[in-house]
């Protein structure tokens, strides 16, 4: 069930948490053939039980499973659809000063929803832990449909694979939209009332360095923004009115480093004015995200969660600086429609960011305490 109070407390989280050492060790043991998949699942189950207890103890009202069953914030979801296969490209993603592990997703047939999708199974377990607690809302985070589209065209091999099964882009977009829509409905039927799309595509569009490469391929920034909007909105039609769908815009979050930079102005007319979500979780922890002026384009009545507290570094932000920045943002979005959070999760991949578990919770406590001062 959705707890309306929980979504109006004005403090929030993006969703991923640092993986416990025991869970990391279990994953390595599975790779080495020392334990079974069932034994890993049991370790995940216990780690999630422990996390949920900690989330409640720290005063969180939006509860997640920490994405403990995933290796990546996005690829595991992609691999869960029919018609998508796990591939190993020559390179991973290139972040600032670091390259990720090399994994990708490739079309291997017509894309459809899989009733055994791992995200659905993950949510059902979380719901069992929290479903009877009227004080909290359980959230499922999934990568945005546009993120899947971007992955499927990443590299020549991926683009060639599409041509084997899809004669035109419209058909591909329609199948992605339908697969996601069916996942949303399945989550809803399992009791989920809060889904968040995590989306790095917008962060790449606003990055001028990335964009200069796309120009050489004959792309238009406006056409690309229109395409990403179309793919995302294709999944957001005819949904139950009490299903809250939000989106988190990120510029990369891997091992405390980043992939892109640039303010929101180039995408504001698309993302803020036309994407059919109810709330925006926006990265704003440093100058790479630009100023607050583009928030003036956010549709009246929608919520904006300001990611002013970084999850990449352990140092705590100055509370008064956070208060001042929220006040500045309220010039463009009414204060009652603003909230505070970290700029991203603490472990978008299983590697996690470079801080300790205690420092992770210190960050969350800072968010809650500061929000309680601003919205008394």
From TrEMBL:
SUPFAM superfamilies given in the database record: UROD/MetE-like (SSF51726)
GO biological process, one term: methionine biosynthetic process
MF annotations from Gene Ontology: 5-methyltetrahydropteroyltriglutamate-homocysteine S-methyltransferase activity; zinc ion binding
Residue ranges the record marks as coiled coil: 23-57
Database matches in CDD domains: CIMS_C_terminal_like
Assigned keywords, A-Z: Coiled coil
Signal peptide: none
Pfam family, one: Meth_synt_2
Keyword hit for Coiled coil: yes
Domain Cobalamin-independent methionine synthase MetE C-terminal/archaeal: start-end pairs: 14-72, 168-350
InterPro entries: Met_Synth_C/arc, UROD/MetE-like_sf
Protein name (record): Methionine synthase
Organism name: Liquorilactobacillus uvarum DSM 19971
